[in-house]
Amino acid sequence: MSLLHLPPEALRQIFDEIGSSFFHEDLRRLTVCKQWFEFALPTCLKCITLSQTTLRSLMASGVTKRPSPLQNNLETLHLELRGDRLCISTSYPPEYTQESNALVATAPNEAPGNNPIKRSITALKKDLDQLAIITQQSHRLHTLRIRAWGFPYPEPFDSAEGYLPLPTMQALLLVGNLRVLVLDLSTGFLNSAGQQGNGHHICPAISALLCTLRTLHLRMRSICPDVLIPRDPNISLHLSEVVINLSLTEKLPGITSAAHSKRCGSQGGGLLQLKADLFEQAEALATQMVFPKVMRILTHSLPQFETNSLDVLSGKTMILEDGSAWDEDGKTVEEGSETESEIILDDEVSTLLDE
What we know:
By secondary structure, the chain is an alpha/beta fold. The chain is built from 12 helices and 14 strands.
């Protein structure tokens, strides 16, 4: 019997086993025949990865202007953005650059439209706005992973400069059935006026998802305990894994120092206070979780750049090996070690850099 003569239910299971990656490796595999395409395309669209370039191509296709199979089939979305790509000229429609001066602030001594990076940031915002429409209409979307790199060397690795539009990022999180959220953002946010701002933060938008999430991994330049406060203090959560990585180091060549995340807004307190407050709120959150399995807060120590993982459930601290996943176990640190003093040193260094 020919494969395509099998019942549709059996064919769907077979294509699910094949997976999206099979078709992403070579899109010509979609075009065996018309009947094959009907089953192959939904499988291909279940899991997609977008960069600035592929995102631009997707939006240029007019995907949001007509009914699209993407909204009906998308289950997992990986979005990878890089600050260095903003320095490279990309072909955008004229209307993208015409609005750049209104959406991104221009320096007093800078001629309008002369900054290609700002034009690229404006264009990226418009593409992300369109992507947010897709994610909000994708009722099968259950996994969202966003990684955004900052600007490249010689730009300081811990520079506060950012290019992510905060209102748009908040809109991307308006997904009704999200189960897995991973935000790894080593760059900052822009407010609605295109300025670096501390007036608003993304933490409330993330905490609004706690009622549906199973896994939450976060690394952001600014964070606060609000991110771990469910809207309903009495609801039982199916959330089982929470990892907050406060270390902004990537151990890249030439990087001899790195920062930790700061508290949202203008409140002070330093790293140790932020870590303590997050730990306290994580403990409170665990009481609402039906089956808490992993709850970690990651930092790094100087000068070794060792990654320290504080287990909220046990109170123990582990040192992770290089390249370890955030939720992996490591070597348990004996009580009375120098780990905390090393973090204090890093906290003092960061405070001096901020002054």
